[in-house]
Amino acid sequence: MGATEPAARRTAPSLGEVVGRLIGEGRQLVADYAELTVLGWGSTKGTILDALKTLDAQGKKVNFLQCRLMKPFPADAVAAILRAAKRIVSVEENYSGQLAQLVQEQTGVMISERINKFDGRPFSEDEMTTALAKVYDGAKAEAVVTHVR
Asked: What are the distances in angstroms from CA 36 to CA 62, 70, 71, 87, 137?
């Protein structure tokens, strides 16, 4: 590539760097000792990371996979991580579990445990910590509702 090439082409990242950015930052690798892997995307990231700090302090080892790109979906990288997971739970702020459905479609990995919140409010740290702790301890994942009248 010559000096007339756009800067984006001259500094193209390696495939490994691209995959790392596509599937997320932080706890994206599945460790053998983690009992649970959390799958998330978008605005749930901060709350999930805060909850994982609390769970880690309680001795609960949880992995986190943050998907950042939906198209083209990094199916091979996501599938490799999720197939190595002992248990998977998706955390989403929508009714139908859109990411879980996309992952199932693209990778063939079934995600039956889903913590969804769809009342228009974001997860609080307490809600996230409680929901993940319950799933970690063996309870079935369930929708989170902020206000019930």
From this structure: 5, 23, 26, 5, 10
**pTM given for the model:** 0.78
User: Where exactly are the structural domains of the chain?
Assistant: 13-136
φ/ψ bin of 132: left (φ > 0), alpha (ψ from -120 to 50), beta (otherwise): alpha
**Residue 2: other Cβ atoms inside 10 A:** 5
Q: 13-136 in CATH: which number?
A: 3.40.50.920
3-state secondary structure 77-120: HHHHHHHCCCCEEEEECCCCCHHHHHHHHHHCCCCCEEEECCCC
pLDDT tens-digit series, residues 108-125: 999 999 999 998 899 999
